[in-house]
Amino acid sequence: MALSFSFRSASLLCLLSLHCQLLAQPVPAAPEDAAPLSYRQAIIGYEPMNLRGLVDKRVAGILRNYYTTSFGGQNTWEELESFRFEGVLTMPQGALHFVAFKKKPDYCKIVLFGGNDLRIVMSYDGADAWQLNTAESAEPSAMPSLEALNFIRDAPTGGHLLYPALPGKQIELLGRRQVDGRGCYDLQVTLPNGQQVISAIDLRDFVERQQIVINAVSGAIEVTTHDRSERVAGIMVPMESSMTIDGELVHSVQMRSVEVNQGLMPWMFARPSGAYIPGSGPAGGEGAGQVQGLGLAGDVSLNSEGALPASEFFGLKEAPVGAFEPSRFPDLDAETKQSILNDIGDLSP
Known about the structure:
Low-confidence stretches: 1-31, 281-330, 345-349
Strand order of the largest sheet: 6-5-4-3-2-1-13-12-11-10-9-8-7
Strand content: 25-35%
Mean pLDDT: 78
Helix content: 10-25%
Radius of gyration: 21 Å
Largest sheet: 13 strands, antiparallel
Shape: globular
Distance between the termini: 5 Å
Structural class: alpha+beta
Number of strands: 13
């Protein structure tokens, strides 16, 4: 279930413009100086499931079946605009509750909840990748560049097997292998900026069983295995996943609920929205307001009394260890925060 990326290009273009004025003659910019297209700019004029032009017919056949069985086909996918996830992120040192939101084409926001009503927010609005740790500041700040590479890579709703014909993108079949005893095709996607994503697609039902990426912060190879998937509004969505590095479990994710088309608006992902949770208060989107599941009326915290029934614990049999311990929350390092998106953000199909 995941990001175009040069924030220096605007300054560079301004310097070029000034240089041209001083010389009183036009100086064409070299191709390498041109600002790269953002994801939403690049997909204009392209259909998400258009396979025309793919040279490798084996890849086209796999993708055709994948689009049909995992996405419900073009018509089903067109009816979906956004996803809302609720669940638990479990790590060796404890667990955190989260809510996450994705909106086409590449809006993404994740809110992690710690003790004492603390929150970590990570968000991307298509142009600005930012973060907020309420334990440290009341104001959002720009996401560090390498962390932003991870986040932006995984932000597009539906992942990178969609839009196979985009210029600069390459999808190739690496071969077959077993994932938890199931035969899978390994499809490697190389993005225009060079980042790569490997998706293991089940030979029989064409559901994604595993995804492999390289963490831009640490250089670690992160392997996310989807242990259980369910169909939501016609789309196969992983409900339980685990992420490993060098065979060692880093964390797991268990979804409590997944909802679609909750009226998410672009401003809800922008930096001024801060720690605002879509659906938790007055919003300008159709369908926003009271959200089913946690009942986040107003700005009620998930950690406040009554917000989380003791008998539920997000569908777990017992409360996750350390879920509300204040000391667990501020200690999340950059690698942990960014690898979360391999489980949460990319859990949309």
